[in-house]
Amino acid sequence: MSGALLVAGTTSDAGKSVVTAGICRWLVRQGVSVAPFKAQNMSNNSMVTADGAEIGRAQGMQAAAARVQPEAAMNPVLLKPGGEDSSQVVVLGRPVAEVTALSYRPMKAALLEQVLGSLADLRARFDVVVCEGAGSPTEINLRADDIANMGLATAAELPVLVVGDIDRGGVFAALHGTVALMPPADQRLVAGFLVNKFRGDVRLLRPGLDRLSELTGRPTLGVLPWLGGLDLDVEDSVGIGRTPASAGPPHGEEVLRVSVPLLPRLSNVTDLDALAAEPGVLVRYATRPEELADADLVVLPGSRATVADLAWLRSTGLADAVARRAADGLPVLGICGGHQMLARTITDDVESRAGTVPGLGLLPTDVRFAPEKTLARPVGTALGHRVRGYEIHHGVVTVDLAGEAAAEAFLDGARAGSVFGTTWHGALENDGFRRAFLTEVAGLTGRRFVPAPDTDFAAVREARLDRLGDLVAEHADTDALWRLIEAGPPEGLPLLPPGAGFSPP
């Protein structure tokens, strides 16, 4: 068996990533070896594989759903936005260029060869490859050189399942329009639909599903119910901050409130997932100084544009609020880009090319950006516990503890009183260290908060992946999915006007 399927979506955030993960988990439960694949990902949430390659966090999560180790072939092209019209291009885990939207397009023909080579490699080693599209498959202004959606599907003859998000409304128009705007060569590969995030009695939806099938000649292969708490390793900040995240009542007497400045170029926001999974820890996102006022801990997260996001932090007044907290002895944690912002100076002739700018000056550190990106998976000790993490950064932090009696080393960074900084992502996923850190925070704030002694974040993630597999097993037409994976696109699918008259520019 060497099957494959492309999961596309009517929009960004329709649920492609979680549906792909759910299909991977369902398949591996059937004894099938399966790998996820996303040809081109645009995300600042990334991870480092065992061999030092950088890929999207979503593909790492999907690999976990498939119970395989993540690798560069699963996400051969990663675009990391750094400004309004610039992105870093990462190919097979290594940065190769900084591009604008227009300068990137001439690169895509060569990248399609790389993408198809990676897909072929995975198909040779796994029974099934579940591919995830990017954005919408009907971006008609981009179709001519597409490598992530229908360009990939037509080149590799992949059957396509289109996911629609009913929670945002207009799902029937979105599903029908997605097919209708495609040229014939693309339409013939779209085998069916999947409705995602449904709330209510599915019988109320049946007349619409039947009419959609009549209009398109394609079945709906499942209606997945709304299920909260499944935003594992999201690709971007779409939807972040809509609601506070908390795992429930505290183990001790009080909750801990964590506020996170919602940086414009926020990266690796998944660092906060482990905190949000801890009972009694409330994680929320802030854009105004007053939203930090009652926080027990402020976390400055990662950033794809440290200097620009530091300027935003100052312009909003959040920087002053963070400085006041530190002066009052209240906890602040900086991670990667957030750690860099806490330094005395930042010298950046690589990313922003701003030269030397002042940092917040809350740690005895200085930062200099290096042309080469650091990609690593370090191991160390902090607060009496073994810690594993991963590093993705150009900024190199120099720690100066001489003459700083109150400062000490902390996970390749520094601690000065109530201010902590580390370049390591993923440190909070280490259960013992996370509990020790939260205990330290509670002590600094005078809270009667006690971390739950048995929170196992790896088990929490595994349980969420099982719930995704259950969604597919219980609410999708798995027999139809098997047929698509084994046999490929069905023959004789009808063409919809005006798509039959449309051809890519």
From TrEMBL:
GO molecular-function term, one example from the UniProt record: ligase activity
CobQ/CobB/MinD/ParA nucleotide binding domain mapped to chain residues: 6-226
Biological process (GO) annotations held by this record are:
cobalamin biosynthetic process
* Record: active site: C336, H425
Specify the CobB/CobQ-like glutamine amidotransferase domain's residue ranges: 257-432
List, alphabetically, the Gene3D superfamilies matched: 3.40.50.880, P-loop containing nucleotide triphosphate hydrolases (3.40.50.300)
Q: Would the keyword tRNA processing turn up in this protein's UniProt record? A: no
Q: Does the keyword Oxidoreductase apply?
A: no
Q: Which Pfam families match?
A: CbiA, GATase_3
The name this protein carries in UniProt is: Cobyric acid synthase
